[in-house]
Amino acid sequence: MLSEVRNVDGPVLLAGAEPYGTPFLIERLAREATLVWMRALPRDRNDAAAQGNLLADALNRALGGSAFPSALPAGVHLHRLQRRRSDLAPLVLALSAAQHAPELAAALLSLHGDGYRVVLDADTPLPGVDVKVLSAELLQMTAREARAVAPAVLSDAAVERIRRDCGGRATEVIRRCLAAADLPAPTLPSPDGRLAPPGAAPTAEPSELLLALRREGRYLEALELAVMAAPEQVDEILQRAGPAYQERGLLERLHLLLSALPEPHRGTERVLEWRLVAGFAVADASETTEETDRHLAMHRAPALRARRAGTLPAERGFPMAEEALSYQEDPLTLFQAGRLDPDPESGARRLLAAVRLAEESGSPLEVVRNAGALGAVYLHDGRLDEANAWLEWAEAMQAEHGVRDGDRRLRILNESASVRLLLGETAGVAEALREAHAALEGAHKTLAAVLRTTVAAFAEVAGRSDEAHAAWHAAVAKAPRHALGHVALPYVTFLLREGELERARALALKAKALGAAERVGGRSGPADLAAGLVAWHQGGPPPSQAAEAMLEDPRLPLERGLAAACVLLAAGHALDHLPSRMRRALVRMPTALLERFLFDSRHVDRVREALGGPATSAQLIVTAPTGARLTTRDGTVPLPLRLAEVALLLAHHPDGLSDRALHAEMVGDGDEPGLSALRTHVSRLRSLLGVSGTPYRFTEPVETDLQRAGEALAQGRLRRALSECAGPVLAQSEAPGVVALREGWDEELRQAALASGDAEAILVLAERSEDDLALWEAAEEMLLTSDPRAPLVRARIRRLRRDYELPAAPVR
Amino acid sequence: MTREEALRRLQGTWTFELVAGRVPVREVALQRALREEESALHDAVFERPLSGRTNAPCAAHRQGRRTARTVASAA
Fold it and tell me: Are A203 and B25 in contact (CB under 8 A)?
């Protein structure tokens, strides 16, 4: 049987399932490569999250740790498996009972090859799944195989008789041979441990099984059994099962189960609470909402009341959340009241209490949820450092306690990325965000939409213009009508900065036409500001009125508000004029990042002055993977390598460089290019920046990203330094002076990272280096074993040690 | 969703089945847990706490661990 499988190059379907002993065959494959083994169940059919969880759980079991979160469709994990193939191969991905998850089976096939082998096992062929089928006839046990597994006490003739009677079905042959020899029935291997053969399993009373499942912490199954056979226990089991279903992204299944409950069990308080949560998740809550409101009219029901508050618009939900809180103070009631509170200060106080209470007596999920909400409130209120601290802590708690809810993880990543973008500390999170977004596109529309605008903003700031265009374009194309203005405003600003006036105009007009829904109480929305920016670009007045009107909305997201605030400052309004949350954020942000909100560098200068900052220097970027660029008052231009080398060397020699000194830095001992060629480069640079005669020096301030990174490092701000420097200094340059700067900086950064004990910083450098084993091993040392990144780090170390022919590292 | 519709959609997807009022248990580990349950039934129900793998209380009182209190005072 094994040789039949090995002889097939492509993926294979074993069309025989358990009766033909396929579990033994799959288990045997584990000797050849790491086995990622899934077993689908009837409940997984048509459930994208359940099938995603099957794959994630199997990967986490095989690789250790929790690198693959729950609640995400399989496509997200498959994307990661593709990207990490060189680190993770060889793998055998086996899906048993594939007939219950044909969508997952079809998706797995795309992975086969280059170190990944896919084996499917089903009791019937799978329609629409293009795979080599090993039929039942091919899987029949041979006489030789039967003799090898049968007890020695049985004669050859007896074994052969049993084999023929069973039609060569391996599991049955083994069972009958053991029975004939008076030995206990065999158990079958499975991803969930050993199983009794089908039809030979002992039975249990539902109530006893329920107790055992609860003791084992298997609340998903406990709820299923209770709904089927003990509905009176569902209310109690939901206390643990409800959050478990939520964390695993299985609210659709929960909705189905709770809807199947008979009266009176479907109307108890906790059942109503979770029917409400699950109903809203699947947009089928109208009946439950009515029942809930009738119940709330007669009972305090603080938990149910808090949940109901969360389903209402904030103006109506907040009073209800406060009422729930007045009846009972717990992580949930504090969370809802804090989240919905229109006063950010009192909201933050409540959420802080929610986090503390969850830490003492709640669940890790509640801790993470409440800390994430606290970070979001601080972000909204312009308190960037506090927001950053809490979001970072929420991520750390997720990793530490193995909170597997992938949906929540990604939303917190998105918030964290937004804050860090405003603070200019993008290193590490930029890569995580891009990877997540790439994995979500096509696999999870809602989450992809949430991340899309953040990915676009990151691409803008990193100077990856094409990527920014693509991301903004997709964000606008897929934005719902009522949110188009919010997405259009930053894209219009970007297009104007890029000189794409017609596209900016067309988009602003479209957004304005559709933007009526955004105008709350007649106030202007972002679409009006976008249209005003286009007019301003064309020589019209600054759109101060639209900006002021937007800022009157206390619920306006901070980033949109910052755009409006920058317009007002550029138009000459005073800083005091702005809402305090805008002032706080603007004063805290690195001024270089304000460019994103304006299309003209002269406006940026005025904003800097208003914030009390120094005049703009020209900005030379030499560490961007997309190539060197120079930003002056006249805009941003890419720099060819030679010009970039000259500019970099002049920027780092403020006392000036003679002809010969510049030649030595550019060429060393060689002759080419000669002095006259160098003078030509200097002349060309003069068309962009003020450069004196020899000794050549800049006659205006020029700042490089390398200098800013160096300053940040000198202040002990390692992550800031990493954000300023996105890669090696002029990677293609062989000019001796540039090589010296590059190697010196790389080593300085590397030593600072290794000494820092900051796992995230070390990981960023390790990823950039790809094959610096010392960095990867330092990262592994720093990470908690429960950190989701740990298994992938370990896989990289194993590969590098193999590539460098080093012995395997000791197991941690 | 009505109860009838939910039951119709659940048909064929239940994780467990009932055979003459009892549930077949194929998993060896679960069979073992059932035997432990049977032999210590009284203690299990009234004295030992139920485990909660997914929702265990979050004990953040380990040395050097950043708790909500430390984050709040630093921020």
Answer: yes
Burial class (CB in 10 A: 0-12, 13-18, 19+), A153: exposed
Q: How confident is the model at residue B54 (pLDDT cuts 50, 70, 90)?
A: very low
**Sequence letter at residue A120:** L
For CA atoms B60, B63, B64, B68, the dihedral sign is positive
Name the nearest CA neighbour of A331 among A289, A374, A299. A374
- Say if strands A635-638 and A91-96 run parallel, antiparallel, or are unpaired: unpaired
DSSP string covering A196-252: PPTT---EE-HHHHHHHHHHTT-HHHHHHHHHHH-GGGHHHHHHHHHHHHHHTT-HH
Q: Convert the pLDDT of each residue in B13-25 to its tens digit.
A: 999 999 999 999 9
Contact of A783 with chain B, judged by CB distance below 8 Å, is answered with no
Instruction: Answer yes or no: are the C-beta atoms of A616 and A605 closer than 8 Å.
Output: yes
Burial class, B61, CB count within 10 angstroms (exposed 0-12 / middle 13-18 / buried 19+)? exposed
- In the structure encoding, which two tokens stand for residue A273, read together? 């609470």
Q: Which of B3, B16, B72 sits opposite A225 (nearest CB)?
A: B16
Rounded-to-integer distance, Cα A153 and Cα A173, Å: 15
Q: What whole-number distance in Å separates Cα of residue A134 and Cα of residue A140? A: 10
Candidates B44, B53, B66; nearest CB to A393: B66
CB contact under 8 A, B23 and A214: no
CA distance A38 to A18: 14
State residue A429's pLDDT score: 86
Q: Indicate the SS3 state at residue A70.
A: strand
Nearest residue, CB atoms, A224 vs list B1, B14, B54: B14
Inter-CA distances, A269 with A82, A293, A362, A732, Å: 46, 12, 20, 66
Name the band, by pLDDT with cuts 50, 70 and 90, for residue B53: very low
B69/chain A closest Cα distance in angstroms: 7
Bridge partner list, A14:
A121, A134
Secondary-structure percent of chain B, ordered helix, strand, coil, rounded to 5: 45, 5, 50
Q: How many CB atoms lie within 10 A of CB A532?
A: 24
Question: Least CB-CB distance to B15: which of A43, A359, A396?
Answer: A43
What pTM was computed for the model? Answer: 0.84
What stretches in chain A show pLDDT beneath 70?
1, 515-524, 613-616, 670-673, 809-812
Contacts of A396 in chain B (CB under 8 A): 66
Contact B51 A225 (CB under 8 A): no
Question: With 50 as the cut, is the pLDDT of residue B48 above it?
Answer: no
Q: Are A504 and A534 in contact (CB under 8 A)?
A: yes
pLDDT of residue B47: 53
A243 reaches B (C-beta below 8 A): yes
| Predicted pLDDT at B62 | 42
Tell me how far CA of residue B63 lies from CA of A153, A544, A774, A786, B30, in angstroms: 61, 53, 28, 17, 36
Which pLDDT score is estimated for A194?
92
Instruction: Judge whether A449 and A478 are in contact, CB under 8 Å.
Output: yes
C-alpha A728/C-alpha A702 separation (Å) is 20
ipTM over 0.85: no
Does A224 contact B18 at a Cβ distance shorter than 8 Å? Answer: no
How far is residue A756's CA from residue A758's CA, in Å, rounded to a whole number? Answer: 5
List the structure tokens of A49: 């999250």
Rounded to whole angstroms, the Cα distance separating A785 from A794 reads 10
The H or E element containing residue A548 is helix A544-551
- A76 DSSP assignment: H
CA distance linking residue A306 with residue A317, whole number of Å: 9
Task: Work out the average pLDDT over B60-73.
Answer: 63
Cβ–Cβ gap B22/A224 under 8 Å? no
